[in-house]
Amino acid sequence: MNDNQWMSLLGLANRARKITSGEELTIKEIRNGKAKLILLSADASVNTTKKVTNKCKSYEVPYKLVENRELLGHAIGKDARVVVAVLDDGFAKKLKSLLD
């Protein structure tokens, strides 16, 4: 997998205001049906991972694991982020194909 490709795409989605990050906001977006794809850091806590993946499953939102929280945060020009929700179909599809 090419880190740079998905990271720059996520950066683009961020600038387009098509993402949200952080556990609470992400879960809110899953609940109200806006989240199209969840990016979860592989080093998230067991608790967070369980909470987010369970939400994804019950609302049928796809999720992908990314290497670590530093990469995820860096991609959107912020500090370490554990979870990011992509709120746009186009970005979600493209990111999914890059992360598969």
UniProtKB/TrEMBL annotation:
Pfam families: Ribosomal_L7Ae. The lineage of its organism: Bacteria, Bacillati, Bacillota, Bacilli, Bacillales. This is YlxQ family RNA-binding protein. Residues 5-95 form the Ribosomal protein eL8/eL30/eS12/Gadd45 domain. InterPro entries: Ribosomal_eL30-like_sf, Ribosomal_eL8-like_CS, Ribosomal_eL8/eL30/eS12/Gad45. Transmembrane segments: none annotated. Belongs to the eukaryotic ribosomal protein eL8 family. PROSITE patterns: RIBOSOMAL_L7AE. Signal peptide: none annotated.
